[in-house]
């Protein structure tokens, strides 16, 4: 049997069995050292899979850090230390310098530090980032409670539209198009939510594979039923313009577009914070499954292996 | 200017400058959390660069963990937690299971735990291991003192001979040849030395690139002169047999053969421990450079980029 037959999530289940490890399967792995909770996570960016050589290397470096910070924030923490494992072809040194400038800018922004790493030669660029964060309280995917509301930060679907625009490789883009491209190439992890998530969220995940896929992780791991109202899903003005122009449905982008790196979380309604760009898009009940406007939602997000 | 022109170590210097990080350049990065010292390290195994697809996957998994433990031990610590970032083609699931069985066996042996990881699809197998260890005292490459003796654990050069034998892809191997192959494919990190290194070593490095290259790191970073006596360098019986058979000089293998994962360390002579397989191969003086039998030793180890 090949990996493509069991898929990414099937393979993870098999490997969990071999390791007999209960903790694997959250945004970060919490470990305890005396009275501290450290959050460990890793995420990689592979050339031709997550980015192209023609992307600005500063943006690639920024994103490599941001996607890891996003996992730390979703677990209720702040990033502390970073190791970078780079696999590189024989590139121009200036490319690697720009990549590292992006990494450094991101680390300064998120207030964490690259403390080490490793270099290997390879055919394609691969940036493996390992990050250690610290949390006052670890927030998992499995704590959603019946009665909670479901919230999302920011707007959804922008990154997918930005990717499609980028791959057109046009000479000229309109201003709203450049904003969408920027949301794909330079996403900002929602570190402004760490305090809110850490204090109030019962469950949280960052939206990396797409809302329709990631909401299932909360539903399954929390053993709850989740209802989503499509009219409440936040769509940006830029995505609306894009969809009008290309005859697309913004809801499709919001549901299945990955790499938005927004946060999806649940807590009681009275914890709503009007100073954050959070929006209630649904509710948590006893039961099983995810429903959109009353109909079961199929998890249509991205499986690296199954779609390959 | 391309990476091949500045080399691996040149590139590391450039990247250190961008990050303005003083700690990069040791076996592990020490970070402090309250009164604890954590050691962070990462090392990767890339198909066709560090191993071939025909190698037993259990051995590949074992080695991926061992090379990281070796760095932690060289810093005077014990491993605690592991994250694994896997980049995989669409392989047989059984291959990945065997790889993880090797990882699990190694983690059980070294008493550490895989707590998480990441999966990405790629053309070649890449195993990026991220390890966190703990040390009572961080031992760096930079603490060697004039008056110290230079010690090495185990025997040197076996791994390179094992690699050459393996690449012959013969049907039959003699028993001593199988032992050399085993030292290449399943090296054991010297975790039995953690206590000794942590208590007594002034400087330590694990021999991954080769003695002649790695000893220079201690010399440069400690600002000392190091003298090595070639007749004291420990050579295994198996390597002698191999060299006799193939008309090679075992000293060449011991000096420039990498991946032995033995420890090279310095401390005063009265800290010698006869219960360990340690051997004094030289001495530390005031001055600069590394000398073998009185002649300057050129750092002939492995540079991933310059040799490419």
UniProtKB/TrEMBL annotation, chains A, B:
Mg(2+) 2 binds at residues 43, 71. Substrate binds at residues 50, 259, 302. Reaction mechanism of ThiL seems to utilize a direct, inline transfer of the gamma-phosphate of ATP to TMP rather than a phosphorylated enzyme intermediate. Residues 25-134 form the PurM-like N-terminal domain. Keywords: ATP-binding, Kinase, Magnesium, Metal-binding, Nucleotide-binding, Thiamine biosynthesis, Transferase. Pathway: Cofactor biosynthesis; thiamine diphosphate biosynthesis; thiamine diphosphate from thiamine phosphate: step 1/1. Belongs to the thiamine-monophosphate kinase family. The gene is thiL. It is an enzyme of class 2 (transferase). It catalyses: thiamine phosphate + ATP = thiamine diphosphate + ADP. Mg(2+) 5 binds at residue 209. This is Thiamine-monophosphate kinase. ATP binds at residues 100, 117-118, 141, 208. Pfam families: AIRS. Mg(2+) 4 binds at residues 27, 41, 71. Mg(2+) 1 binds at residues 42-43, 118. One of its GO terms (molecular function) is ATP binding. GO terms for biological process: thiamine biosynthetic process; thiamine diphosphate biosynthetic process. It comes from the Bacteria. Catalyzes the ATP-dependent phosphorylation of thiamine-monophosphate (TMP) to form thiamine-pyrophosphate (TPP), the active form of vitamin B1. Its EC number is 2.7.4.16. Mg(2+) 3 binds at residues 27, 71, 206.
